Amino acid sequence: MNRERRKQIAAAREKIEGIATDIQAVIEALQEIRDDEESARESLPPSLQEGERAQQMQESIEALEDAIGTLESFDLEDIGETLERAAS
């Protein structure tokens, strides 16, 4: 591989590092939203904890957990390692 393509790969890896930072910030924001929604659900009066509103809140919590899990499983380190092999 020539020098120019190695530089392009290095630039791509730098972008990946930035994306990893952004993804971590999104994960943290979603975790905070999920925690707030859980607290709000738990704070419902007992008479409402089995109602439609509580169910919608639980579905939102579960969807947020799914989104967080998907983001956490995105393996940017593996991509970086693969690019490193490509540059060698």
What does this structure look like?
This protein is an all-alpha fold. It has three helices and no strands. The chain has helices spanning 3-42, 52-73, 76-87. Helix 1 runs antiparallel to helix 3. The model has no long low-confidence stretch (mean pLDDT 92).
From the N-terminal CA to the C-terminal CA, the straight-line distance is 7 Å
Which structural class is indicated by helix and strand composition? Answer: mainly alpha
The total strand number stands at: 0
The value of Rg in angstroms is 20 Å
Shape: rod-shaped
Task: Provide the helix percentage.
Answer: over 70%
Indicate the proportion of strand residues: under 5%
Order of helices and strands: HHH
The overall pLDDT, averaged over residues, is: 92
User: Which consecutive residue ranges, at least 5 long each, have pLDDT under 50?
Assistant: none
Q: What is the count of DSSP helices, taking H or I runs of 4+ residues?
A: 3
Largest sheet: none
Put the structure in a nutshell:
The protein has helices spanning 3-42, 52-73, 76-87.
Keywords:
mainly alpha, 88 residues, 0% strand
Describe how the helices and strands are arranged.
Elements: H1 3-42, H2 52-73, H3 76-87
